[in-house]
Amino acid sequence: MIRARPHNVIRNWLFLGALMVPGIVMLFAARQETSLREARTLASAPGRIELVEHPLQYASLWDAFLKDHFGLRDSLLDINALVRRQLESPASGQVIVGKQGWLFFGDGLLPGSESARAVEEKVTRQVELIGAIARRLDRQRVPFLVVPTPDKHSVYPEYLPGWLDRLPRSDVMRQLIAGVRAKGVELVDVGDALASSRDHSPLYFLTDTHWTPIGAALAFNEVSRLSRAVLRPVPVPSGATLVHGAPHDLSRMAGFDGTPLDWVVPGFNSSYPQALREELQVADSSLQKPFVLRRDGLGSKVLIIGDSFSGHWPSYALESANTVYWSHHNQCLADWPKLLSLDVDLVIYQMLERTIGCPPLAPEVIGGIDGLQAPIG
Q1: pTM of the full structure
Q2: Residue 122 contacts by C-beta under 8 Å, 6 or more apart in sequence?
Q3: Which of 70, 101, 118, 273 is most exposed, with the fewest beta carbons within 10 Å of its own?
Q4: Which long-range contacts (CB under 8 A, 24 or more apart) does 41-45 make?
Q5: DSSP 8-state symbol, 248
Q6: What is the distance between the alpha carbons of residues 83 and 363, in angstroms, rounded to a whole number?
């Protein structure tokens, strides 16, 4: 009989113990719902409802949950980021290293698993949702503006790595614009304003998914131009300079935690002075909580339903309005009955290019929007 050598036995037990540690930690550690490092919501554990409704996907749902919650996940991600940073390779497969220090988010840029038909169907669902909102607001005689916002790679494609030129590009923006205009709904195409200014001012951060205050102000001014005098344009910031500073969202996701070079706009203030900020009581599951900004004096009431790209717009809108409501669109699942029952003078619906499209919506969602109650104050 062949016996294992003592040091082999110890090594085997140590190896087995190392494999068990993440599982033990996972059992006793507090469970996270969101990842600030990856800027996303983590997968939740599937229950009996998912088993009944999606039996064929049940194993995949558990696989996604375990990948997001295995023990020591954050520590292992940090180690992975350290190694990749030394190799100048991003820790997240969603971060694409472009030219001249530019980083891009892969979601919406890299080919997805959805078929062209599936993409067309989800865009059609959003167009139908927008049509229902427009019908409701038209009966209330409230102006309605739809603002699809281009991703950074659509405005600055020349900074993408060369290998991306061979990949097919999504045309969801074109499909949405055509569908919304066919419904007769007012659409603000901010892409033209950004394209005409991109060579003169930095409109997006180098190491962040978001636009700079300059890009945000230019887009807001396009919205105000079509707002039927409800909003006034705001001054566009200037004096952008490149400085080394704290890493932005794509830098953190990539594991590039140093002090990367990026744009800073001096003197920019994202909050309106003397404005009262309140929580907006609506059903919401996003990372960004709905809020209300109010100021003294005369002015209109504005509702903005959007994402982080419209996060600065409420303070811009307070230059004209005295009450601004802001809520996340929640991938088409916003609290439409409550939001569209607010007594406002203008509704703005903003969505980012890569988030265009709705999941399957229950029939009562569209019907409920069309048959909402009278506005509330």
Answers
A1: 0.76
A2: 114, 357, 358, 359
A3: 273
A4: 41/285, 41/287, 42/68, 42/69, 43/67, 43/68, 43/69
A5: -
A6: 49
User: Of the candidates 171, 166, 35, 46, which has an alpha carbon nearest to the alpha carbon of residue 94?
Assistant: 35
DSSP annotation of 42 reads: P
Bridge partners of 324, per DSSP, are 293, 302
Per-residue tokens: 148: 């699809």
Q: What is the DSSP letter of 204?
A: B
pLDDT in tens, the chain (377 residues): 555 566 666 777 777 766 677 777 666 677 777 665 555 577 778 777 777 766 766 777 767 777 777 666 666 666 655 555 555 566 667 888 899 989 999 888 877 777 889 999 999 999 999 999 999 999 999 999 999 999 999 999 999 988 877 666 678 999 999 999 999 999 999 999 999 999 889 999 999 999 999 999 999 999 999 999 999 999 999 999 999 988 888 988 888 777 889 999 876 677 888 899 999 999 888 888 999 999 998 899 999 999 999 999 999 999 999 999 999 999 999 999 899 999 999 999 999 999 999 999 887 778 778 765 444 34
Q: Are strands 301-306 and 276-279 parallel, antiparallel or unpaired?
A: unpaired
Residue boundaries of the structural domains of the chain? 25-71, 105-370
